[in-house]
TrEMBL record:
<protein>
    <submittedName>
        <fullName>MHC class I antigen</fullName>
    </submittedName>
</protein>
Length: 23
């Protein structure tokens, strides 16, 4: 469960980072 949360959080952070970088 914890691992899944970490992976999900990392994926979300990566998407937000790309979005922020793109902007």
């Amino acid at each position: 469960v914890v691992l899944a949360a970490v992976v999900t959080g990392a994926a979300v952070a990566a998407v937000l980072w790309r979005k922020k970088s793109s902007d």
